[in-house]
Amino acid sequence: MEELSTPSSPSLVVRSPRQTLSLLRNRRTNRDSPPTSASTSTSAGGPKPSEVYGFVGSITTVIATAVYLIWAYTPERCLHSVGITYHPSRYWALAAPSFVIVAVALSVVIYMSFNLLATPPPTSFDTIFDEQSRERAIHYAAGAEKPIEPISDIGVDKINSLMFRHQDES
Fold this sequence. Notes:
The chain is an all-alpha fold. The chain is built from five helices and no strands. The longest helix has 28 residues, at 91-118. It is flat. This is PIG-P domain-containing protein. Keywords: Membrane, Transmembrane, Transmembrane helix.
């Protein structure tokens, strides 16, 4: 196979943002450092692709919002005078945001419902302990310093005595 050669005018070449960034990185490393045999290293120069995509996404969001607001609030005769004759019905200017708001609200309700279905009933022993529970182990030598104890569960009997002890005394 023969390799594709770049055109004489680089401005006519259409490239993706990722290709453009890689070309810019290669130019920067070749220009800043003297040519060596290991000049193909990938340095951390230039913007990260995630930053580029975030910037492009934010600009796209601003432009889409501006187009939506112009379409929703500009009278049809003004759009026709500019030459825009084919556009969606004005019904969708209110219906689409309403559908999105209702979908988000319903998804929150459904998510909370699934969590409530996955929760064991109050009479189940799974609410007290499960396979991940750890009993508190106390191993102190006489006269030695007390080490920091590992993470463990506090027993129900200890919680009950701490919370309800004063009620038994009265």
